[in-house]
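pinned: reference chain
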Amino acid sequence: MDPHPIGAARSPASRRPMPARRLAGVLDPVIPRVGAWLRQRPGALSLAQGMVNWGPPAAVAEAVRAALADGNGSASLHTYGPMQGDGELLEAVRRELQGHQGLDLDGTALLVTAGSNMAFNAIAQVILDPGDEVILPVPWYFNHVMAIQLAAGVPVGVPAGLVPDPERLAAAITPRTRAIVTVSPANPSGVVIPGDVLAAINRLCAERGLFHISDEAYAAFVHGSVPHQPPGQIRGSGGHTITLHSLSKAYGMAGWRLGFAAVPRQLLAGLAQVQDTVMICPPRLTQRAALAALAAGSDWIAPRVASLEERRRLVLEAVAAARSRGLPITLPIVPDGAFYALLSCATPHAGEALVERLVLDHGVAALPGEAFGVGGGEGRSMLRLSYGMLEPPVLREALDRLILGLQELLGSPAG
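pinned: its C-alpha cells
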C-alpha cells in the first residue's frame, strides 16, 4: 500500500526533490574518494592523480596577457565564437594532426573541446541510443565508462589483454555495438599498443560498421621502442575513426580544460547540438592559450617527457627490489608509455580498502584497480601508480612508503 496516497499530507523531507534514479547505475568517480582520504592525512604523498609536474610554455601566459591588453582584439574574447572553435586554432590543430602526426583527415571534421573527457562525453551522447554498447578493452579508463552510462549506453568490458587481442574484441561485438575504444599509450597500464594491433582493430571497426574511438591524450609520452602509431593515419579511416587529444598532459594544462578531436563528418551536426547546449563555444581566451601551446610543439615537450624516464626507472627498480625480498607484487607488463604503472598485489584486500589503508596508515596514495575494471578477484588486487607529479627525491620517498605499507598490509616480512 502506498504510504503517501494522493492528497495525503507529507512531511517536508518526503517532498524533497531527488536526483534521477538512473544515476545509481553510473560508476562513482574514484578521484574524489581518494582525495578525501588524502585530506585526512596531512603530508601524504600521492601516486594517484594523473598529472605532470610542469606548467604550460611561457608563451601561454604571454599570449593571454597580450590578448587581454589588446584594446581592439580583446573585444572578440567577450563574444560568442564558432561552435567548433576559432578558425586560427582549428588550422593549428589541422597542422598538428595532419602535418605532425600524419592523420588522414579526409571525411573528418575538427572540434575544440574542454579537454578530451568532454569530447568523449559528447561523442557518447551523439552515437548511442539507450541500450547501445561500447566495447572497452579491460583495463578501461573509468571516465569513459561513466560517459557511456550517462548517455544511457552499456559499457562492455572485454578482458582482451593489456595489448588487446582484436579477435577477443571481435567476439564481443553484438547487434547493439556502436564503437570500440582504445587508449594508447594506455591509462592505467602504460602500454603502448603496437601500430599493427591498432590497425587491426581499426579494420575490424570498418568491416563491422563501428566507430573506433582512439584516445591519444598521452601520445607524446613514449619511453620504449614501440612508437605511437595513431589509427587515424590509415588511409580512408576518417569516416569511422574518432581521434581525441588533450593539452592537459604534454603541455601541463590540466586546469585549462583544453582538448580537440578529429571526428567523422557525419557526427558534426549531432556534436553541434551537444556543444551548443553545454558551452555554446570553446572559451575564446583559452583558445589563444592553446594556440601558443601548440606553437611551442614537440621541441618544448620532448625534454620534459624525457625527464620522466628517471622516475619510471625508480618505479621499476622499487618493484624489482621488493619482489627480490619476497613481497608478492608484480608489474603485469613493463610500462613503456604515459606515466603510469599497473601493480598487481597478492592480497585478500579489495583494491579500494588497500588504498584507504595506504593513505591513512602509511601516507601514500594510489588508485584501486577496480576503478579500471581489474583486480578484486582470485586473491589479487591491482593498484595504478602515477609518477608524473613527483620529482625523483619525493618519488623515492613515496615508493618507500608504498613498499613498507604493502609489506605490512600483505603480511610479508620487511626487507
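why pinned: The chain has a mean pLDDT of 92. Residues 59 and 354 are 42 Å apart (CA to CA).
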